[in-house]
Amino acid sequence: MRRMILICLLWMITNLATAALPDQFAQRLAKGSLTEKQQLINEMIKENDASIQPLFTALVEGNLYWLDTNSTLAIKQDNQFINWSNKQVIDLPKNQFKRITINNNIRQLVAQYQLQIKLSSNTIPTRRNAAKALFGHIQSPSQINIIVERLALEQDSEVKQRLLEALAFAKLENCQQNECLVLLTQLSNVTNPIFVQKLQQMTSIEGSQIVKEKAQSLLDKLTQKKAMYEKTEQVYFGISLGAVLVLAAIGLAITFGVMGVINMAHGELIMIGAYTTYVMQQLLPNYPGIALILSVPAAFLVCGAVGMLIEISVIRYLYGRPLETLLATFGISLLLQQLFRTLFSPLNKAIITPSWMQGSIQVNDFLSLTINRLYVIGFSLTIFIVLLLIMKKTSLGLNVRAISMNPLMARCLGVKASWVNALTFGLGSGIAGLAGVALSQITNVGPNLGQNYIIDSFMVVVFGGVGNLWGTLIAGLTLGLANKFLEPITGAMLAKIMVLISLVLFIQKRPRGLFPQRGRAVEG
Amino acid sequence: MLTKYFNQDNGRYVLFCLTLLVIYLVMANLFFPTNSLFYVGNQTIILVSKYLCYALLALSVDLVWGYLGILSLGHGAFFALGGYMMGMYLSVQGENGSTTLPEFASFINWQNLPWYWMGADNFLSTLLLVMLIPGLVAFIFGYMTFRSRVSGVYLSIITQALTFALMLAFQRNEMGFGGDNGLTNFKYLLGFSITSNGMRVMLLLITLIVVVISYLICYQLIKSKLGKVIIAIRDAEARVRFVGYRVENVKLAVFTFSAVLAGIAGALYVPQVGIITPIEFLPLNSIEIVVWVAVGGRATLYGAIVGAFLVNYCKSLFTVWFPDEWLFALGLLFVLVTLFLPKGIVGLLKLTHSKKPQLKPQEASL
Amino acid sequence: MSITSKINTTIKLTFLAAGLFTANLIYAAENTIKIGVLHSLSGSMAISESTLKDTLLMLVEEQNKKGGVLGKQIEAVVVDPASNWSLFAEKSRDLLAKDKVSAVFGCWTSVSRKSVLPIFEELNGILFYPVQYEGEESSKNIFYTGAAPNQQAIPAVDYLQKEFNIERWVLVGTDYVYPRTTNKILETYLKDHYGVKDSDIMINYTPFSHSDWQSIIADIKKFGLAGKKTAVISTINGDANVPFYKELSNQGISADQLPVIAFSVGEEELSGIDTAPLVGHLASWNYFQSIDNDLNSEFINNWHAFTKSDKRVTNDPMEATYIGFNMWVKAVEKAGTDDTTAVQNALIGVTVPNLTGSYAVMMPNHHITKPIMIGEIQDDGQFEVVYKSAGTIVGDEWSDYLPGSKSMIADWRTPLVCGKYDVSKKVCLKD
């Protein structure tokens, strides 16, 4: 209790003292060189004043501005500028304010400081994260002192544990034999890569044999664990690349696989889907997340409509001449590319990733799963299942399969072939559009988007077996995994070449892909 | 006599026009002063030579696609391989027939040439390699593919995979073919300056002669008994097999021959354009070749020549006339030709020039 | 059809074709001076190059308002080489031989420059090349207004080393000649100057338009976050950058942990990315739009007016184009004619202001002087300059850090007139 009062008192004193602080510093902060700013911030951090916390936050986030006419600092909040010293809104045009610039060194400085502050936060998760992030970043004795002080106050056992580990690691730098062994035992559950690096260093330099052995045994354990998680990570990368390939190819599995149209404009339909996302985000500038969700149906409708238009105006006249469809759709792909280049300029468009799709889930120190990829995997599987249901359970699916097997007979039995064909092509195109929405989250949105995926898409469909949706799924995932397992060994370039060559060889072995179509329709 | 000569085949008529054009260009280039109204500049000579190379390439595609029914989306690869062979020769040519290191050698610290550049210093061995390497690649590829009866779209897609893989491979610097920058800065051919007027005219004439000879060989091939088998394979492969022909051997022979033609086209192309880069392997280029054939008219041989000339001429003009919108025109051309001229441009010519029944290009099974 | 009529048609057709091929009969009016614009407007390079075409059209328009050059109006001949290298060769020949332009502004990729180089040398043209490149070249007919490696890559490394005490380096690039050469130069430089060990350098190459960076970034993360201060030097080209940065931010790598410095990412590339997660990553250039001076604001205003959009950004190759164009204008005025040889000679030594407050001088090696700047990405897609060299630096065409070119120089003045002069042996290896 006594300590609490003391802290409160201290806080009040510093608060009083620093009420004027920014005014002294402000000029230098705004006008000084980056090195000067760095020194200044160091000084400010030494003051350890809680009241200027918001200033630091604003500075790091790029929201701290300088108003030269009044010589005041202002913080930008919701498009308003608020005077730092009197907290009043300043109603002046935007261009009068100049942002206070910082560099990475300053950012790092402030981030370290903020970590310390977060250690005394009221919420446990914040404290846990801060304690974890401290590992390997404690250098100065003063920092050690702060941690020791904090440890005495800390209630949460996990935070305590983390802090102890961070301290132990900091002490590892200069320790004697027995002390080292104790420290290493304390650290035996740590998996941080910085620790791994340190262990490697310890085993390779001159020193006590016992310590070395201890370090080596820890290192072996860690390396083993690391290898296992690295495999898991590779599988995840492979699946997520596979999911992208499946997404890009699955529309083609309908238009090319089922209908037999060699649709060279497939890539451009993906591109249109991606542009739809862009347009939706432009229409709803403040809600990028909602815009993204809305662009799923929008892209499906837009691309479906474009696809049907293509079918009705061109492809309809070319059934039974599959190679001609290649030429005509190649022409259409050129037209669409140029159309979008003219409409939207040749430059790439920025798509905003909503916050719920950013970042990654940290499973442990060796494994983290990126969230946007998780969404893509989920999206891809959903589309696959829905499509499978459409083809297997609906009357449209039945008609489509009938027409692809025997168009004449299907027509005789009353299937409206022309309408079904248009719908099917629309469906395939719409799904290409959905792929575009997903791809806009991981790659460029520009007129060339489709070109980058068209060859891969054809490979996937052919590898899986034309006319088989399961084949497309398996093929996409296989190619993704193969790529990702080869990449660390051979490099990205050779991996791609090797995958292509194995594909060529595979087709020699199984000329109709993984899941060949059976029956008489095949020889047609 | 001329009538008889022409009536045999529209192709000879096309070739005759082409020869007249080339002779005119050569005359105008050599015998008129540069300020004369009739003078034809070097750029036109080079342009026509380039089109002739494309024509040869289109011819080779027409042979396998139009007659054999194999849609190769990777013929650009054979063209580029032939081009690389010639490019290797040209890049080591120094003054007076001496050999030097290629320009890119300094980038990867080469002191001398590795083994696979063997033969690049000799013109005769280069001529051989120009035909051998594309032929060999086509043979190995075809041997595996036709034996395992890969056909239709599967074949088309793996030819595309082949050229794509080759493009990536040649883009790698370690491959030792100049990486993405390719081979360039050629100076001498057989000791003569490659930029001299005489050399340009010579190359044009040689290209023309090669195109004419290749056309005649292809024509004779199609008219021969083997030609009948080739067309039969296109129209009903299974039946031909049942009759007792070794379909895969025929396919392999024609495919390899066609690749050799493409390789020669590439070798003629490189000294005139002055550069060979991995971009020639781009799958898109191979599709474009197919488009030339389709625009000209499939399974006519001369249609391929007409198509190559026409499309590339349009491209040359459009990129200058409407640099911003020319893709619209080109795209539209492809769509309209496939929709309204299923037999290509020469389909129109046929109506006006000949009442003789023609080979009916039937729908090949894909 | 009778034989005579058939032959008649033949001859008619032939002459028609011949006439089409000799379309150069129509001469343009003599009171203009023509320049060629050779930038891809379609295909994969259109994204970068089409902007430079617009820049040139704007510069021409302005110059014509000021009265053109030598009292004549300037006419820009625009063609589209469609990102196809052999088409670049064809178009450049057309421009020089048919349109008789007095200078050409164009090319972006090294390979496109390599493909037109023999043609410019054969027909003695002038090409202004506005993009940073790997060096190892100097042609009598090419004027390089972009940066050589010593004007971009090496200062970037020096900056990182000085500012952040970097111990480990990741060199990541697209697999083609520019990144390969730049990385080779940097590797030698790092080892020689900072004593960096092999185990502290990681090099990685990817294909063009590489879009799946997951495992590479995971590797970089493992390499970089293992205790030693690490920086990434990126020579990733074109559209592979967006997926690279997206993956970077998704895997949670922030600039203060692992700064990335890029040589091919400018304002225009950033306009296609949501830059909020990238704040703090760096780029090394010779120009940034955020530079505050009168000439630059005038240039930006003109650009906004010309494109009728104030969202369009300016970038380094645009400045290089601006410098090149002004140098050409000045050289033509100096020579009093647009004759190629005269202009070539007049160009050496020509000095024009650049947009960053200093002057660009055309040196005898056909490279120019440039200030070096390092900028940090901001959340509005602009760069904040964090370092600016004290003066300007001359472009070094033959790198001092490659064994094969250490002793080479280029000097196009008499008496040397040589693009590759071996100083130690005193011979000209290429003229």
From TrEMBL, chain A:
Topology relative to the membrane: Multi-pass membrane protein
InterPro entries: ABC_transp_permease, ABC_UrtB_bac, BCAA_transport_permease
Pfam family, one: BPD_transp_2
BP terms from Gene Ontology: amino acid transport
CC per GO annotation: plasma membrane
Spans traversing the lipid bilayer: 235-258, 290-310, 322-340, 374-391, 458-482, 488-507
One Gene Ontology molecular-function label: transmembrane transporter activity
Highest taxon of source: Bacteria
Subcellular location: Cell inner membrane
Assigned keywords, A-Z: Amino-acid transport, Cell membrane, Membrane, Signal, Transmembrane, Transmembrane helix, Transport
Signal peptide coordinates: 1-19
Record NCBIfam families: urea_trans_UrtB (TIGR03409)
Family indicated by similarity: Belongs to the binding-protein-dependent transport system permease family. LivHM subfamily.
Protein name in the entry: Urea ABC transporter permease subunit UrtB
Organism: Gilliamella apicola
From TrEMBL, chain B:
Location relative to the cell: Cell inner membrane
Gene name, Swiss-Prot/TrEMBL: urtC
Organism of origin: Gilliamella apicola
Pfam family, one: BPD_transp_2
The keyword Cell membrane appears for this protein: yes
One GO cellular component term: plasma membrane
Membrane topology: Multi-pass membrane protein
Record-linked InterPro entries: ABC_transp_permease, ABC_transptr_urea_perm_UrtC, LivM-like
Membrane-spanning intervals of the chain: 12-32, 38-57, 64-86, 123-146, 153-170, 201-222, 249-269, 289-314, 326-349
Record keywords: Cell membrane, Membrane, Transmembrane, Transmembrane helix
Keyword Membrane in annotation: yes
Protein name: Urea ABC transporter permease subunit UrtC
A single GO molecular function term of this UniProt record: branched-chain amino acid transmembrane transporter activity
UniProtKB/TrEMBL annotation, chain C:
Domain of life, source organism: Bacteria
InterPro entries recorded: ABC_urea-bd_UrtA (IPR017777), Peripla_BP_I (IPR028082)
SUPFAM superfamilies: Periplasmic binding protein-like I
TM annotation in the entry: none
PANTHER family per record: ALIPHATIC AMIDASE EXPRESSION-REGULATING PROTEIN, PTHR47628
Protein name: Urea ABC transporter substrate-binding protein
Native organism: Gilliamella apicola
